[in-house]
Amino acid sequence: MTGKDHGTGLGLAIVRRFCCEQGGELIFTNPASGGACAEIKLSRNSIHE
Predict the structure, then answer these.
(1) How far apart are CA 26 and CA 6, in angstroms?
(2) What is the pLDDT at residue 39?
(3) How far, in Å, CA of 49 to CA of 42, rounded?
(4) What is the pTM of this model?
(5) What's the confidence (pLDDT) of residue 40?
(6) Which of 24, 18, 25, 27 is nearest to 45 (CA)?
């Protein structure tokens, strides 16, 4: 969390690219209780072995 009013908009793009490069997933959902949920799934096994 930052104290800035505006960001560059690159944060999620960087995270998404990292996840894809590692063979993972970036999943967003909107819980019924409100807000947003971001889930990062990465494999324990390296795909680059």
Answers:
(1) 23
(2) 92
(3) 15
(4) 0.60
(5) 92
(6) 24
For the beta carbon of residue 31, count every other beta carbon within 10 angstroms: 8
Cα 48 to chain centroid, rounded: 21
DSSP 5-32: S---S-HHHHHHHHHHHTT-EEEEE--T
Cα–Cα distance for residue pair 49/39, rounded to 1 Å: 25
Structural contact between residues 29 and 39, judged by C-beta atoms closer than 8 angstroms: yes
Write out the two tokens for 41.
């799934």
Above pLDDT 90, what percent of the chain?
Answer: 37
Contact assessment for residue 31 and residue 37, using Cβ atoms and an 8 Å cutoff: yes
- Distance, in Å, from the CA atom of 38 to the CA atom of 30, rounded to the nearest integer, reads 9
